[in-house]
Specification:
The complex is a heterotrimer of chains A (191), B (203) and C (201). Chain A is globular and about 60 Å long. Chain A contains 9 helices and no strands. Chain A has one domain. With 191 residues, chain A is mainly alpha-helical. In chain A, α3 packs across α4 and α3 packs antiparallel against α8. Chain B has a two-stranded antiparallel sheet with strand order 1-2. Chain B has one domain. With 203 residues, chain B is mainly α. In chain B, α1 runs parallel beside α7, α3 packs parallel to α6 and α6 packs antiparallel against α7. Chain C has one domain. In chain C, 34% of the residues lie in helices and 25% in strands. In chain C, the strands form 2 sheets. Chain C has a 6-stranded antiparallel β-sheet with strand order 1-2-3-4-5-6. A two-stranded parallel ribbon of chain C has the order 7-8. In chain C, β1 and β2 form a beta hairpin. Chain C starts with a helix and ends in a 12-residue tail after the last helix. In chain C, 31% of the residues are buried. Classes of the chains: A mainly alpha (191), B mainly alpha (203), C alpha+beta (201). Chains A and B meet through α2, α4, α7 and α9 of A and α2, α4 and α9 of B.
């Protein structure tokens, strides 16, 4: 696939949240304020970009040459878990302001299925190295876009008269559904 | 917690602590594979398998694991059972495995499974952990069944692949699109809360 | 025993046990998984080439595999072409059959697709799409008929029907087929695939 097509597809068409349903937990949990949603999005984009590179290296330099495909799930999840820890320690050392901004969101990312999903989908699509890097970065951007948009809507929803049982997750999911429908329209951009 | 009877331990997973409707856990498989009842149930059963066996293993080796590396150990255990489930589906139910795509390996990041290990199996006996895992799995199966039945019925007019709706019925394609998944689950969450508040009031 | 050595021992042991166990499971299932993939391809071939009994792979590159098909007496029954290309949402892998003279498409089936459920996914459906692919001209470019025809008879030999509300998915399938046909014609010219039995490899 062309690189531009991968970018558009990952950001708008096959959006991680709205098409693959990955990263729903932070999508619902950290989307009440635009500021924190944006920081979460940045943290995810950051980790996704690194994960894409590392998981590609592991998959193509170790697992496939040695016929160890069956260890894919185990090695990906371990790498992601330790990677997030490393990134956290690294940022704390190098850039305290960035740590201030992203710090509390990083541990939450370990159990974020979007990161694992990224590694698996990139492996499944047999992307080349460059394609994987673009895919990782643009998937992060797509996640950020979705979470910031819904945070904006939820800030407005606070003022709306939502039926009691739908308050919180219920209405957030329904709004996400309408967003997913709107994002469907972007499919046309790829053709 | 120790005062709960076996029955209560099992039943809490079905409703009071239903992983999907009450705890909002395991959302990605819940939304992604519930376009048809068959894929929904295949996913629910694969998750059940992983949850039960991980709980058994974790609760039996809990005393041997230093607490600093417990999460890493749980993850390896869970990932191993997920790999087994994935290989098994590929070998014996190839078409279902194709339909589920990346979502079988993604069971590994289903928060229900890691959550139960951390919150329950690491602190309770093997027997109780098994009951807990069974209860939570049943709750998950129930949630996926309801969601996938609604989506398949309205989105394709079928149930388990059999035509149920008459020829007058025009399928609501939105129901099998991602948007339909979000909206249906949102409405179901609302209904669950409504039932909960009604029963609370009547008590 | 110090804590850190215990941590290392526990993690290594868990890792080794799980690794060994998974290697065993992989060994057990490996053969069946390979058979399943094989069976899926054979089934697809049987759908598009009549009387195909023996499959010989005669050409293979990324995204394009060509099989020569023999019937039970060993005579040439036709060719099957497996091709992968980009669809509306994701990759589409399909298989189409060619008759023994390589001039006619005998049929088409879709092996793998992730098009929009209920719309683009109809490229898998016999009534709305696949039935219109029998007996098509394989010597030139195929074109799309829009608005859609109701019966296969209304279409000319070089025309393919559009699925209503899924024009792009239909077009993508057509593009994949046209591209593979071009490649097939080029391979015939280079003498890499031949109609006659004795010329094959």
């Amino acid at each position: 696939m062309e690189l531009a097509a991968i970018f558009i597809s990952a950001v708008l068409v096959q959006n991680f949240v709205l098409y693959y349903f990955l990263g729903i937990c932070p999508f619902l949990g950290v989307s009440k304020k635009i500021d924190s949603a944006f920081s979460m999005g940045l943290a995810v984009t950051f980790v996704m970009s690194i994960t894409a590179v590392v998981s590609w290296l592991i998959n193509n330099l170790i697992l496939i040459p040695f016929g160890l495909d069956y260890l894919q799930i185990v090695s990906f999840i371990l790498v992601i878990a330790s990677l997030v820890q490393l990134v956290e320690m690294f940022i704390r050392k190098i850039s305290p302001p960035l740590y201030q901004a992203l710090g509390i969101y990083l541990p939450l990312i370990t159990t974020n299925c979007a990161i694992m999903g990224l590694a698996l989908i990139a492996a499944l699509n047999e992307y080349s190295f460059v394609e994987t890097v673009i895919f990782g970065f643009s998937s992060g951007i797509g996640f950020t876009l979705a979470i910031v948009l819904i945070a904006g809507i939820r800030e407005q929803l606070d003022l709306a008269d939502v039926p009691e049982p739908l308050k919180g997750a219920g209405i957030a999911l329904i709004v996400a559904g309408i967003m997913a429908l709107a994002f469907n329209g972007f499919i046309g951009m790829l053709t | 917690m120790a005062t709960k009877s076996i029955g209560q331990e099992y039943l809490k997973g079905l409703w009071d602590e239903n992983p999907v409707f009450r705890q909002l856990l395991g959302m990605c498989p819940t939304l992604a594979v519930t376009g048809t009842v068959i894929t929904g149930m295949a996913m629910a059963l694969a998750t059940t398998f992983v949850l039960i066996f991980s709980s058994l293993v974790v609760s039996s080796i809990k005393k041997l694991i230093p607490s600093q590396v417990r999460i890493a150990t749980y993850i390896v255990v869970i990932a191993s059972f997920v790999t087994i489930a994935d290989q098994f589906l590929k070998a014996y139910f190839y078409s279902i495995s194709e339909a589920l795509g990346p979502y079988v390996p993604l069971i590994v990041v289903n928060c229900i499974i890691l959550g139960r290990q951390e919150a329950f199996s690491s602190k309770n006996s093997v027997g109780r952990s098994l009951i807990d895992a069974l209860g939570m799995s049943s709750g998950f199966v129930l949630a996926l069944f309801v969601l996938s039945a609604i989506r398949e019925l309205l989105g394709a007019g079928t149930f388990l692949g059999y035509q149920v709706m008459g020829p007058w019925f025009k399928p609501w394609i939105i129901m099998i699109l991602p948007a339909g998944a979000f909206i249906t689950l949102g409405v179901l969450l609302g209904i669950a809360l409504l039932i909960e508040s009604k029963t609370k009031r009547s008590q | 025993m110090s804590l850190s050595s215990r941590m290392i021992i526990v993690l290594t042991t868990v890792g080794l046990i799980s690794g060994g166990f998974l290697a065993g499971v992989a060994k057990l299932t490996e053969e069946r998984i390979a058979l399943n993939i094989q069976a899926e391809i054979e089934e697809a071939i049987a759908e598009v080439v009549d009387n195909a009994e023996v499959n010989q792979k005669v050409y293979e590159e990324e995204d394009l595999v060509i099989y020569r098909e023999l019937d039970e007496e060993g005579a040439l029954a036709g060719f099957a072409v497996q091709a992968t290309g980009v669809g509306f949402q994701d990759k589409i892998t399909l298989m189409f059959g060619l008759d023994a003279s390589l001039t006619k498409i005998t049929g088409l089936t879709v092996i793998d697709q992730n098009e929009t459920p209920g719309l683009g996914a109809k490229i898998e459906d016999w009534n709305s799409f696949l039935q219109f692919w029998e007996n098509k001209d394989a010597t030139g470019q195929l074109t799309l008929r829009k608005p859609a025809a109701r019966t296969p008879e209304e279409l000319s030999a070089a025309e393919i029907n559009t699925i209503t509300a899924a024009t792009i998915s239909s077009k993508k399938v057509l593009e994949i087929v046209n591209l593979s046909l071009e490649k097939v014609r080029q391979l015939i010219q280079e003498g890499k695939i031949a109609k006659e039995e004795q010329d094959g490899d």
